[in-house]
Write a structure and sequence with these properties.
With about 270 residues, the chain is an alpha/beta fold. The chain has 2 domains: about 5-170, Rossmann fold; about 190-265, 2-Layer Sandwich (TolA/TonB C-terminal domain), CATH 3.30.2420. Helices cover about 25% and strands about 25% of the residues. It is globular and about 55 Å long.
C-alpha cells in the first residue's frame, strides 16, 4: 500500500531518503518510525530527565514484531537528540517500561495497554500508540491511518498532566479529534477588546522567544470564561493567558472555544 505522510514533511523525507534513493516507497513501518524520532526531537523534556550529556534517549517498543523494531533501529541509526544518542528497546508483556523516555504501544498489545499506561502516569515518559482507543486509555500521541495518510492526533489532557511540552507549531499539525468538551467554533468570533500580553521581564532576560497556542472558552456574552494552554513555554503561556482572560469577543448564540496563537519576539 502506498502511504502518504503529513506533518514535518521535509524532516520525514530526509529520514526516509535512503529508501527513496533506491526507488522504493517508504513502508508504513518506516514512516511510523520516522514519526517516533520526530516526536522525540520535538518534545521539550523535563529538566533532569536526561541526567547527563552522554545519557541515551531510549525509545521502547511495547509488543509487536521484530520487523518494526528493525525499521526503527534503521531510522535512528547514527542520530542524536542534542548530544544524546538514541537507543531502541523491544518490550514484551511483563517487562517494566518505566525506565524509558518514549514508549510506543503496538496495536497488538491493546488488552495490556490501559494497565501499563496507568503505571506510567507519574513517570514523564512520552506515550505514543497506534490504536483507535489509545487516547481514551490515557495516551498522549496516537498515529492513525486516514485515507492512505499517516497522521497523528494528540491527547491534550494526558500531555497537560505530564511535564513534557510541545510547541504550538507542533500541536497545530495534529489531526483534530472529536469528543472535546468544547468544540472550536466553525467560524472564529470577532474580538472586540484585545489586550496585548506583557513580555515577562525574566523571559526577556533569558532571551526567550517563541509561539504560544491556547484555547479560550468564550461565553455567549463574549466574555472569556477560561483558557487552556495547548503549547508554548510556560512563562510565555502564562503571560498570554492573563491577557486573553481580559479579551471580549462578539456575543454569540452559544458558548464556543476559540483558538489563540501569539508569537513573542523581542
Amino acid at each position: 500500500m502506498r502511504l502518504i505522510w503529513t506533518a514535518w514533511c521535509g524532516s520525514l523525507l530526509i529520514l526516509l531518503a535512503p529508501a527513496c534513493a533506491h526507488g522504493q516507497e517508504a513502508s508504513e513501518y518506516q514512516v511510523k518510525a520516522a514519526y517516533l524520532l520526530n516526536f522525540a526531537r520535538s518534545a521539550q523534556w523535563p529538566p533532569g530527565f536526561l541526567p547527563d550529556d552522554n545519557t541515551p534517549l531510549i525509545i521502547a517498543v511495547f509488543g509487536g514484531d521484530e520487523e518494526f523494531v528493525n525499521a526503527l533501529k534503521g531510522i535512528v541509526a547514527g542520530k542524536v537528540i542534542g548530544t544524546h544518542p538514541i537507543a531502541v528497546k523491544h518490550l514484551r508483556a511483563g517487562d517494566n517500561p518505566a525506565a524509558f523516555h518514549l514508549v510506543f504501544f503496538r496495536a497488538s498489545e491493546r488488552k495490556n495497554t490501559p494497565a501499563v499506561i496507568a503505571t506510567l502516569k507519574e513517570n514523564n515518559s512520552l506515550l505514543v500508540g497506534e490504536d483507535p482507543a489509545f487516547l481514551r486509555d490515557g495516551g498522549m500521541i496516537n498515529l492513525i491511518l486516514d485515507k492512505g495518510k499517516i497522521q497523528f492526533e494528540v491527547g491534550q489532557t494526558a500531555l497537560d498532566q505530564s511535564n513534557i511540552h510541545f510547541s504550538a507549531m507542533f500541536l497545530s499539525r495534529a489531526k483534530t479529534t472529536s469528543g472535546l468538551s468544547n468544540q472550536q467554533a466553525d467560524t472564529p468570533r470577532l474580538i472586540l477588546v484585545k489586550i496585548s500580553p506583557e513580555y515577562p521581564v525574566i523571559a526577556r532576560q533569558m532571551n526567550l522567544k517563541g509561539s504560544v497556542q491556547l484555547e479560550a472558552v468564550v461565553g455567549r456574552d463574549g466574555m472569556v470564561k477560561d483558557v487552556k494552554v495547548i503549547g508554548g513555554h510556560p512563562l510565555l503561556a502564562d503571560a498570554l493567558s492573563r491577557a486573553v482572560k481580559q479579551w471580549k469577543y462578539e456575543p454569540g448564540a452559544k458558548e464556543s472555544t476559540e483558538l489563540v496563537k501569539y508569537s513573542f519576539e523581542q
